[in-house]
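To whoever is on call:

I kicked off a structure prediction for a single chain this morning and the downstream step that reads the tokens threw a length-mismatch warning. I double-checked the sequence; it's 565 residues and nothing unusual in it as far as I can see. Pasting both halves so you can look.
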Amino acid sequence: MLLVVAKMVMSAVTVTTGLEVDFPSSTLEPEKHKPRTPVVNAALGMLVASIFRLLFWIYDIIGSVILAVLFKFPAEKNPLPPIGNRKFLRQSVTEIADQIRRREITSEEVVRAFIGRIEEVNNQITALVDERFDLAIEEARKVDKLIQSGEYDETELQDKFPLLGVPFTIKDSFCVAGLKHTAGLHLRKEITAPQDADVVKSLKRVGAIPLGVTNVSELCMWWESVNTVYGRSKNPYDTRHITGGSSGGEGALQACAGSAFGVGSDIAGSIRMPSFFCGLFGHKPSTGLISNWGQVPETFGRLAELLTTGPMVRHARDMRLLLDVMLGDNIKKINKVPEMKQMRVLYMVHDGGSPLASPVNDEMQDCVRRCVQHLEYKYGVKPQKVNIIKLYHSLEIWAQTLCGAGAVPFCEELALKQGKVNPFLELIKFFFNASPHTFPAIVLGLVEKVAYVGTKLPRHQNMIEMGNSFVKEFQELMSDDAIFIYPSHPTAAPRHHEPWLAPADFSYCGIFNVLGVPVTQVPMGLGSKGLPIGVQVVGGINSDHLTIKVAEELEAAFGGWVPPS
């Protein structure tokens, strides 16, 4: 445990005290440092990077052995009941909604089918944490009566209620009236949401039916979904592995077809990482287009710009439909999709070698190359391999932007803003199994103390300014006709607890929250270990429909979601 604290704090010290490496060439101009010559700067940078890589390599070896001993990883995965040929569970949202409107199936049939699937698998994956099954069935019956009444014809139903009778689930950090609203925090375990979050209202307004809420990490600030209220979510493809976070319960439930679609939120990859680890499509919209109201923790100012709300689905075509519903009037801000043959395709297979994140393995790099090669073959585009140097600083830029966003201190959030949690005391209590908080939350509280010191150093403002300039430069690079293919993560889903060994690996996703651009997570089948693999498709600001269009093409080429067996 102390080794884990050491690595997390060491990463925080690196981020906050100014250790850095710059490469001499880039498609975007690197920051200029007057005090040192480029040669000296590069030499010092490579030395620092080499030292940290060596330290982290030693740490990873020791840490892996300790974790294996402490948690006694099971030798075999725990397979889930198969989906079989139950058609509702395999169909897209679009197909289900069409059949309900045409009276080929009833909403009640669909709702009961998904409830049955949840009851079949939930004990093994800890995905759904509170439900409204009886209410959902009642609402489905009302939908069926409305359709049978003939008040609206099929076209009118599609225009007015495009999701009529379709069941969905949403992460526990969102308000769903009458359901528990814990955000994974033990002090909130008895809190019930008095009303719906804005996105829930939008979905219900067009006929969708909420089934329940799904598990998250404690206060949504870790990339494995575990908390002391409900426990640990497990990956349907191999229950020894993580689902990602913070929308990890949603990722697990969608992967095994527990509802027609899901809704997550994303401040550092919380839609994309669970979608990646669980073999789904997930979309992080452009910043500021969809209301975040009704979530915990609350966000405001710059923090609200980092957070986005979006869909998690098994079928790429559903993202456009769901996104447009969530956008409401803001749909007019979305750029038109260019001719695919006119599209510019940029790509990178890693972040340039930051010592803070794990190296991207060959399988993940190959995913990027296969996507690029397919787009070149299909549309005749000429992909361009770029070297965007500021991606090397992804963790620093994201962390310093967050520190400078004016958020409520995490230790206050842990105490429901009624005082502060003492992370040093909680760490001691944790060793005696007496803390109500998870280990990552406690360590984040410790890191927050280090980060506070770092905000007083010149490096803090320098990194914020680097992030601000990166926003402008990246948009100039992308414009309206470009996509950028980038790894989702260095590896497929790690085993439970292993994110402790690589706390900075979320940076492959987090940097795009700072940039405010749309990103679509695309599954690329299963890797060598039987776990999902995939890529991120990044666009320019408000080019959400373009990244989704590319995802649809990649689904057609590579198969998309593969049901867990």
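Update from on-call: the warning came from a stale cache, not from the record. Cleared it. Sanity check on the structure: Residues 38-71 form the longest helix (34 residues).
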